[in-house]
DNA sequence: TGCAAACCATAAC
DNA sequence: GTTATGGTTTGCA
């Protein structure tokens, strides 16, 4: 049985789907219908689910983490993501994406460089990212610092990035173990918007 | 700028 | 197997 929890805060909706204390999918969107639809379509297997209104302690933690990310806060809580049913390449991309620190962005091509494959393949993984925004796919943009897209709506991506400004000015490299990922200050993207 | 062609893993047929 | 599909990239006019 998959448990689904949804809650609104301010102008947005947050939702998570759990199966025995592990996160199967999560989402942020402007409307309740949209978040629910997101988590449900992202669920990797066909199993009965039920929507609950009283969150368990674990669900509360997950939801509040979503909210923290949405507000641009630093989050250290590591939540258990259930990725075992996803294709290997997808997992590699998600893992790399998860390493992008707050305040920085990278490009689809840069990730492709680090984990192998091509930029479009990376784009595909983002488009189907079940763990939005736990895996910060909003920090992945086009190579010219144009926005690219976002599952929760492009305006959400802009809001998120706007709140993640940390005033960094230099590019940096993140160590992925077997490879390096180049990241750029989020300011580059903001500047590109104007 | 704008457009066309190459790119690459997945899912759907 | 084969085809269709992207949250791309790059090169060239």
- What's the total number of strands? 8
Q: Averaging pLDDT over every residue, what do you get?
A: 95
Strand order of the largest sheet: 3-2-1-4
Oligomer category: single chain
Shape: globular
What does this structure look like?
It contains 7 helices and 8 strands; from the N terminus they run βββαβααβααβαββα. By secondary structure, the chain is α/β, with parallel strands linked by helices. The structure holds a DNA duplex (13 and 13 nucleotides).
Keywords:
alpha/beta, about 190 residues, 4-stranded mixed sheet, DNA-binding, 7 helices
SSE order and pairing:
Blueprint (H helix, E strand, L loop, with lengths): L1 E8 L2 E8 L2 E8 L2 H11 L6 E4 L4 H14 L17 H11 L5 E4 H8 L3 H9 L12 E2 L12 H10 L8 E4 L4 E6 L1 H7 L1
The structure holds a DNA duplex (13 and 13 nucleotides).
In short:
This protein has helices spanning 32-42, 57-70, 88-98, 108-115, 119-127, 154-163, 187-193, and strands spanning 2-9, 12-19, 22-29, 49-52, 104-107, 140-141, 172-175, 180-185.
